[in-house]
Design goal:
single chain; about 190 residues; mainly alpha
Length: about 190
């Protein structure tokens, strides 16, 4: 954008950051104190400036100074929208402080660990049968290759067997990787 519109760009960080080699782009390294980069930007932002940030408090400060502010997703912050964004940020911060919003999955319980171990045991019969099915699939694929070479068509029975073998294998893998909870059937369908 700096090149397209001929704008002077300041990239502000509290440690070294690589920036493109362009006379319009200037790297500014501030000290590593809390909000030092935000303070540098907020002190210098004003009417006619564009601030690109994901930091909502910085966006609020820059808007109050008259700058145009664009979020890191490309959506602009406006004087009408920044108040709601600040309120939402404060609400989520308070909920996190109270332990209401953790932002992740529940920790694993002993029952979950047991479930994973049992899945590995439950899948042993599938692994034994699938070993032979996959060996058969290799031979049928080679046979199908020769048939295709001679006739120009993939035999339906060999094709159906190959697709069924792959489906079965994928169902077992999905079960082992905890992607599905249903025990996979012993079936090529």
């Amino acid at each position: 954008m700096a090149e397209r519109y001929g704008l002077k760009v300041f990239v502000v960080a509290n440690s070294y950051i690589n920036v493109p080699r362009d006379p319009r782009i200037e790297r500014v390294v501030v000290n590593d104190s809390f909000d030092a980069a935000d303070n540098w930007i907020a002190e210098r932002a004003g009417e006619g400036d564009i601030v690109v940030t994901a930091d909502i408090p910085l966006a609020d400060r820059a808007i109050k100074k008259g700058a145009t502010v664009i979020g890191n997703t490309g959506v602009p912050f406006t004087p009408a929208s920044i108040g709601m964004a600040m309120a939402n940020r404060e609400l989520l911060s308070n909920l996190r402080a109270m332990g209401e919003v953790t932002g992740g999955p529940k920790p694993m319980a002993p029952r979950d660990r047991l479930s994973i171990a049992l899945r590995l045991i439950y899948v042993i019969p599938h692994a034994i049968v699938l070993l032979f099915v996959m060996i058969a699939w290799c031979f049928t694929t080679i046979a199908a290759w020769f048939v295709i070479l001679l006739t120009g068509e993939y035999p339906k029975a060999l094709y159906d067997f190959g697709v069924g073998a792959m489906r079965w294998r994928l169902r077992v893998e999905a079960y082992m990787l905890l992607m599905v909870d249903a025990y996979p059937p012993f079936s090529l369908e």
